[in-house]
Design brief:
The protein has four domains: 124 residues, Beta-Lactamase (2-Layer Sandwich); 102 residues, 2-Layer Sandwich (Beta-Lactamase); 93 residues; 126 residues, Heat Shock Protein 90 (2-Layer Sandwich), CATH 3.30.565. With 500 residues, it is α+β, with helices and mostly antiparallel strands. It has 15 helices and 15 strands. It has a five-stranded antiparallel sheet, with helices on both faces. The longest helix has 65 residues. 47% of the residues lie in helices and 23% in strands.
């Protein structure tokens, strides 16, 4: 009875190779549980021995693998090729080598590299083959992973809208993608194997670009870099570059440069900056114009107020005095009654004219400033409507007269609205100096209104306030709800003091 071998098959099966008993023992000891699959065949190519590792690779038992049974484990896509190659080697009595897959019963696929050498006995007669199968699965999987990653990277590079260039340490272009062709106008063949500085760098930018290139090649930390690229037609395109170094044995072996064409963005930015500059000039001119308009309006108001005071008020005052004198000379009661009525009318006209003079230009605005003028306006509102008033003045020296006049007119319009429509019990005015200009806030606890409703006929106060503020280049915010009062706040930019 044959003795079983430590692997699969038997000692007797290997007698054909003419091995001494000691050599057989050594062979089995070395191969039984080795890291690679080992097999031996007879002169017809049928396996007579397979070690444990080979059984693991094929997924077969020893009994299933012996003879030509091992071929049943070949992957269907490789089976015909391997059978043909093995038959050819057996027929020619030559060595065998190949790469193929085993498909296990559980669906596991194993790549192997198989090698078999001819063994000849006495008189050089072919007695069989001894071979190995090396598990190549991990290497194959690694290669497949690398290949897939390489394909994905190449696809990303090729489909990227950014320029991708690979440069050697001398600036020669090794790789250029499709975007590089589209943006520069050069074909890939025209770009590759040419120097970056010769073909794409504008001459006036050469020193700066070369300095950055040398810095990167020396191993310095990459940074964002912007420079024009010269196209085939001579146009300069603005490109922002992100560079990374390729190292080989600790030295920079090249650069990978990714560039985003920002030409249109840069042009739009320059146009926006130019438009902004023009807008700032126009705004400054508008401010100066507003300054002159406000001054002219206030001067005209002063002139009209002075004319009323010096002419109409004086005439009516003189008329009232003459009527007093005349009354002393008349005894007829009816005439005296008529004279008294005329004097009352004259005095009422004088009072109305004086109120008109105040509304045209309150003298206190010139003498004591905005806070004093608004305080007087609030006191008049309290006397007329009986509301509780409050003035919170946080101004320092106060704004220039023209700004004060504009703020006074807007606040005056807000307080007129309160008197006419709000039915408020309390009214407050806040004055403050902000970095951007003069801030005014008018609040009341009246009946409020719905923001956005069209103004009633003749109620144009809100519209007037908005127009005044916008003309002054400031902003206004109006907040109100029915039953919750109203808040009007606005800010006027500082006007230039004409005395400065």
């Amino acid at each position: 009875m044959e003795s079983p071998s430590p692997g699969g098959g038997s000692f007797a099966a290997l007698k054909q190779f003419g091995l001494a008993d000691s050599a057989e023992t050594l062979f089995f000891s070395l191969t039984a549980r080795g890291p690679v699959g080992v097999f031996a065949t007879d002169a017809d190519g049928g396996w007579v021995y397979a070690n444990d590792r080979l059984c693991e690779l094929t997924g077969l038992t020893v009994e299933q693998a012996l003879g030509l049974g091992w071929m049943e484990a070949l992957h269907p896509e490789d089976a015909d090729r391997v059978r043909e190659d093995w038959a050819t080697a057996a027929a020619a009595g030559g060595d065998f080598a190949g790469e193929y897959r085993f498909l296990g019963p559980d669906g596991t696929v194993r790549w192997v590299r198989g090698f078999a050498i001819v063994v000849r006995g006495t008189e050089d007669l072919l007695t069989g083959w001894i071979g190995v199968c090396v598990d190549d699965t991990e290497r194959r999987q690694s290669e497949e992973t690398l290949r897939a990653a390489k394909e994905r990277a190449e696809q990303l590079i090729e489909t990227s809208k950014a320029i991708v260039l690979s440069l050697d340490p001398d600036g020669m272009i090794l790789i250029a993608n499709k975007a590089a062709e589209e943006i520069t106008g050069y074909t890939r063949e025209e770009l590759q194997a040419r120097n970056w500085f010769d073909v794409l760098t504008p001459r006036d930018r050469y020193p700066d670009v070369w300095a950055e290139f040398e810095r990167l090649v020396s191993g310095a930390v990459p940074k964002r870099f912007e420079n024009p690229v010269l196209t085939k037609t001579g146009e300069e395109r603005i490109v922002v570059w992100e560079n990374s170094q390729v190292f080989d044995r600790g030295k920079v072996a090249g650069l990978v440069s990714v560039g985003i064409d920002i030409t249109e963005t840069a042009r739009a930015k320059r146009e926006a900056e130019r438009s902004l500059a023009l807008l700032e000039i126009a705004d400054e001119e508008r401010r100066h114009l507003l300054d002159r308009i406000v001054r002219a309006q206030e001067q005209e108001r002063r002139r009209i107020a002075a004319d009323i005071h010096d002419d109409s008020v004086q005439i009516l005052t003189a008329l009232a005095l003459r009527l007093d004198v005349l009354s002393g000379r008349v005894e007829d009661p009816d005439v005296l009654q008529q004279l008294s009525e005329i004097k009352d009318t004259a005095r009422a006209a004088i009072s109305n004219l004086r109120q008109l003079m105040f509304e045209l230009h309150p003298p206190i605005l010139d003498r004591e400033g905005l806070a004093a003028a608004l305080k007087l306006l609030l006191e008049q509102l309290r006397e007329e409507s009986g509301v509780e008033v409050r003035l919170d003045n946080r101004l320092g020296d106060g704004p220039v007269l023209e700004t004060s006049a504009a703020a006074y007119r807007i606040a005056q319009e807000a307080l007129v609205n309160v008197r006419k429509h709000a039915h408020a019990r309390r009214v407050g005015v806040e004055l403050a100096e902000r970095p951007a200009g003069l801030y005014v806030r008018v609040t009341d606890d009246g009946r409020g209104f719905t923001i956005g409703d069209p103004p009633a006929p003749g109620h144009l106060g809100l519209v007037t306030m908005r127009e005044r503020v916008e003309t002054a280049g400031g902003w206004i915010r109006i907040d109100s709800e029915p039953g919750r009062g109203a808040t009007v706040e606005f800010l006027l930019p500082r006007l230039q003091d004409p005395r400065s």
